[in-house]
UniProtKB/TrEMBL annotation:
Name of the protein this chain belongs to: STAR4 protein
Annotated GO biological process: cholesterol import; cholesterol transport involved in cholesterol storage; intracellular cholesterol transport
GO molecular function terms noted in the UniProt entry: cholesterol binding; cholesterol transfer activity
Residue ranges constituting the START domain according to the UniProt record: 1-202
Lineage: Eukaryota, Metazoa, Chordata, Craniata, Vertebrata
Pfam families: START (PF01852)
GO cellular-component term (any): cytosol
Database matches in SMART domains: START
Length: 202
């Protein structure tokens, strides 16, 4: 029954969304997005927050982010994605793989995530959490996403634009220097915005 997990996940993300500005430290700033981080409550790494304005309507932006046909087309980090199980209410379980990063210091990873998309204020929230599910393929390290999600709401004074705010806390696992992980996470989140913007324009 996905309902209790979906509800708990949504509540966790809404709580992250209410964390005061003073608790975040800027990790990276580009023309497309600002990335902050703070220590995660879930594991020994960081909870990242990314935010930027994207020129498009919320439904179209979220359709490009959540599990579905668009995501593989534009997200350069994602190398495969299969929806393993679909439930009602915009819930599914997906298995996906990511490319190696930082000259392959970070080897390709595999994740199996529960994903849930729901309304939030005038926009949408699409969120996920990893599950211990199925066999790990031999050529991948299985990573783990603690509660993650993307809030997308229309800008009140500019309805054709949306404010996109993401919360990501990924435990990459394997023997990795923390500095490499931090550098990769900040860069990946900043690139996510520039790649998404390009995809929405095509």
């Amino acid at each position: 029954d996905p309902a209790p997990l979906a509800s708990k996940l949504r509540n966790t993300l809404v709580r992250y969304h209410s964390i005061g500005d003073g608790e975040w430290r800027v990790a990276k700033k580009t023309k497309d997005a600002t990335v902050w981080h703070k220590p995660s409550e879930e594991f020994s790494g960081y909870l990242y927050k990314a935010q930027g304005v994207v020129e498009d309507v919320t439904n179209r932006i979220v359709d490009h982010i959540r599990p579905g046909p668009y995501r593989l087309d534009w997200d350069s980090l994602m190398t495969s994605m299969d929806i393993v199980e679909t439930f009602e209410e915009n819930c599914c379980v997906m298995r996906y793989t990511t490319a190696g990063q930082l000259w392959n210091i970070i080897a390709p990873r595999e994740f199996v995530d529960f994903s849930y998309t729901t309304t939030y204020e005038d926009g949408l929230l699409t969120c996920g959490i990893s599950l211990d599910y199925g066999e790990v393929r031999s050529n991948f390290v299985r990573g783990f996403n603690h509660p993650c999600g993307w809030f997308c709401v229309p800008l009140k004074d500019s309805p054709g634009h949306s404010l996109l705010t993401g919360y990501i806390q990924t435990e990459l696992r394997g023997m990795l220097p923390q500095s490499a992980v931090d550098s990769a996470m900040s860069s990946t989140l900043a690139s996510f915005y520039s790649d998404l913007k390009k995809a929405l324009k095509t």
